[in-house]
Amino acid sequence: LTSANLTSANLTGAILAGANLTSANLTGANLTGANLTSANLTSANLRGANLRGANLTSARVSTSQLKVAIR
Asked: Can you name the residues that pair with 65 across neighbouring β-strands?
């Protein structure tokens, strides 16, 4: 899923553990309750994404745009 365009995607409850989402565009995506354990979100755009209840344990988020993500 490297560089994937997932803008406004409904990923509620998605199991993305270990996924490579490097440089993915997740702007406005709904990741409520998603499992992102050990996912690689390096340089991903998460602006406006809904991360309520998402599991980000051990996820790599360096240089990701999380500024206005909903938690």
From this structure: 45
User: What is the DSSP secondary-structure string of 46-71?
Assistant: -TT-B-TT-B-TT-B-TT-B-TT-B-
Give the single-character DSSP code of 52: T
Give pTM, 2 decimals. Answer: 0.86
* Interatomic CA distance for residues 63 and 32, integer angstroms: 22
Backbone angle region of 38, left / alpha / beta, with phi > 0 → left and psi within -120 to 50 → alpha: left
Tokens linked to 64 = 């990701």
pLDDT in tens, 7-29: 999 999 999 999 999 999 999 99
